[in-house]
């Protein structure tokens, strides 16, 4: 299984929304080497994104200390699409280079899709309206 994922490292201006969709697919090669993608039904999946300052070196039992923690919204389970609604309040954190990962859980099995940098850069406009 693979997922059509956004660029792994994400750069966001502080206080901006950063919603994005990921897609779960099985990928195979046809006889001439062209990749074919078949959607995976994720209707019963739980998908989570977590942003932290550092990668924890110890066992963590919950995400209470995460900077951002979001459950993905299954936008179309049959076509393998999930959306993360990252709001401007979520990204209103100090500038810096953080870590995030995305995990999914189904039938008692949990797997990480990937981990990458979540970079918050400074904003210029502080208020609209």
Description:
It is a single chain. By secondary structure, this protein is an all-beta fold. It has one domain: Immunoglobulins (Immunoglobulin-like), CATH 2.60.40.10. The chain has strands spanning 2-4, 10-13, 20-29, 35-39, 46-52, 68-71, 73-76, 81-84, 96-106, 109-121. Strands 1, 3, 4, 7 and 8 form a five-stranded antiparallel β-sheet that branches. A five-stranded mixed β-sheet has the order 2-10-9-5-6, with no helix packed on it. A hairpin with a 5-residue loop joins strand 3 (20-29) and strand 4 (35-39).
Could you list some keywords that capture this structure?
129 residues; single chain; Immunoglobulin-like; mainly beta; 5-stranded antiparallel β-sheet
The CATH homologous superfamily is named Immunoglobulins
Overall spatial form: globular
Number of domains: 1
Rg, rounded, reads 16 Å
* Low-confidence runs of at least 5 consecutive residues: none
CATH architecture: Sandwich
Order of helices and strands: EEEEEEEEEE
User: Could you say what the CATH topology is called?
Assistant: Immunoglobulin-like
Please outline the helices and strands.
Layout: E1 2-4, E2 10-13, E3 20-29, E4 35-39, E5 46-52, E6 68-71, E7 73-76, E8 81-84, E9 96-106, E10 109-121
Parallel strand pairs: 2-10
Antiparallel strand pairs: 1-3, 3-4, 3-8, 5-6, 5-9, 7-8, 9-10
Summarize it:
By secondary structure, this protein is mainly beta. 0% of the residues lie in helices and 50% in strands. Strand 9 and strand 10 form a beta hairpin.
């Amino acid at each position: 299984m693979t997922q059509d994922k956004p660029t792994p490292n994400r750069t966001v201006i502080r206080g901006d929304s950063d919603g994005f969709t990921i897609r779960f697919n099985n990928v195979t090669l046809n006889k001439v080497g062209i990749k074919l993608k078949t959607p995976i039904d994720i209707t019963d999946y739980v998908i989570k994104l977590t942003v932290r300052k550092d990668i924890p070196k110890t066992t963590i039992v919950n995400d209470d200390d995460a900077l951002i923690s979001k459950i993905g919204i299954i936008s179309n389970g049959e076509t393998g699409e999930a959306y993360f609604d990252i709001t401007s309040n979520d990204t209103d954190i100090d500038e810096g280079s953080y870590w995030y990962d995305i995990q999914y859980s189904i039938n008692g099995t949990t797997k990480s899709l990937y981990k990458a940098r979540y970079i918050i850069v400074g904003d210029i406009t502080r208020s609209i309206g």
